[in-house]
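Researcher: I'd like a structural prediction for the single chain below. Treat it as a standalone chain; there are no partners to consider.
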Amino acid sequence: MLLDRKGIKAEAKGIVKTAQVSAYTFSLVYLLIILALTVVRNLFGAETTVNPEIELQLRQMGIVVVEIPHLITVPASIAAFITLVVNFAEVVFGCGYSLYHLGVRRGREMGYNTLTEGFAFAGKAILLAVVMELFIFLWSMLFVIPGIIAAYRYRFAMLNLCENPDIGIMDAIRMSKVQTAGYKWQLFVVDLSFLGWIILSALTAGVLLIWVQPYMSQTYIGCFQVCKKASGVGSFPTDNPGDNFQSWNV
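Model: Treating it as a single chain, here is the predicted structure.
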């Protein structure tokens, strides 16, 4: 079964426009939170100095060493801790953003408080993110391509968890492996189709993401729904959409 990329993207555009709480305003709030977290991560720097001997050698080679001081300098251990906390916060807010788009697709009114709903299962979300990164890293040690394939294999794991926080993290990963079987290349093509938008967003210092991010997110969730249906694996709404789910775990 092939992904109808054009149809899924056209559907995504329509869904974004039907959101009762503007997807663009919601994305602006989300992106501002991510920007704030990024600023916090970059604001704190570990106490580092260039080894005098190495600096002398570099200067003898004609290389001028310039150290750019951080606004707030803290010990390396504290800087690492802050970075870790910020990274975890980004994961949880990312879940909230996914929950918003999953709800919009089901025709529900998703308020701005949805961004914090990921904290209800923050432990699982963070652990899932860590496990996925570890698996992808281990596959990448074999070569770059196995690492990329692994990234697409686990592509829907977090969405599985967002749809049904009661499942275990390994269940979410196993479900994603079945859902993406035979679709990895097609999902890669979907990513490539957004390359132009991503470049334009970079050229506008990310401002364009306010409009592009909702479109991309709904497209990916559309692909997720198609892959779930084709594989028969995932969480499916019952007669009361958005409230009760019947789950197939593998």
